[in-house]
Design brief:
Layout lengths: L1 E8 L8 E8 L4 E5 L6 H8 L7 E6 L2 E2 L9 H4 L2 E4 L3 H4 L6 H11 L3 H15 L15 H13 L5 E5 L7 H18 L2 E6 L2 H7 L2 E4 H4 L3
Parallel strand pairs: 3-8, 3-9, 6-7, 7-8
Antiparallel strand pairs: 1-2, 1-4, 4-5
């Protein structure tokens, strides 16, 4: 279970963008978090992905409270969650080839020896041809780069995925392809999913349940 309990968070303690938020994602469950732009849902997604420390409240993974965030989180907790952001160009190091981008988590966790095989496997899974793996972000489309970012998120076989507006910048065919990749991964691993977005139709079709922002956080 991934639990957010009474989370208050933001970038200025005097003006938090998320107040007293409660949300749970069970293992194997797909939860859609629906809300308008600017409501704070992306900040809450970063808290759920252990990338932003809340000002109050806590994140609990399988009954164990998270005590550190970002690089301070214990490896077991940090690697349990894969995250895909809305804007792949802001989430990718422009100096890296796509192969190196996908391999980043593997190398960072001491799995360099298996990285090449895992990258090839993931590239096929997300629909990247071998010639694209040698290119840098500015040499590929947004859709191709987001495929690489999804492959990076899956590289350590996380137990949860946090997708923050993952398909907002993509065309319909790429959106369908990436949602299918996520669903195939969930079906084979039992991973949970938190999908954040403002497209009610997509979230309703994709997720087991969709929760409106006003039901999650205080105004």
């Amino acid at each position: 279970m991934l639990e957010l309990r009474a989370v208050t968070a933001g970038y200025d303690r005097r003006a938090p963008v998320v107040r007293d938020a409660h949300l749970t994602v069970a293992q194997g469950e797909a939860v859609g978090l629906l809300g308008p732009s600017g409501c704070g849902k992306s900040t809450l997604a970063r808290v759920a992905a252990l990338l932003h420390r809340p000002d109050a409240g806590e994140v609990v993974l399988d009954g164990t409270p998270v005590r550190g965030f970002r690089h301070r989180a214990p490896r077991e907790q940090r690697t349990a969650i894969g995250v895909v952001f809305q804007q792949p160009r802001l989430a990718a190091d422009p100096r890296l080839r796509l192969a190196d981008l996908i391999a980043e988590p593997l190398r960072a966790t001491g799995r360099r020896a298996s990285a090449a095989d895992r990258v090839r496997e993931l590239a096929g899974t997300v629909g990247l041809t071998p010639d694209l793996l040698g290119r840098r972000p500015h040499e590929v489309s947004d859709g191709q780069l987001q495929r690489a970012c999804l492959a990076r998120a899956l590289s350590l076989k996380p137990r949860w995925l946090v997708c923050d507006e993952m398909t907002a910048m993509l065309d319909a065919s790429t959106t369908a392809a990436l949602v299918r990749v996520v669903e195939d991964y969930r079906a084979s691993t039992g991973a949970g999913l938190l999908s954040v977005g403002h497209d009610r139709t997509l979230l309703t079709r994709w997720c087991d349940r969709t929760v409106p922002w006003e039901a999650v956080a205080a105004g």
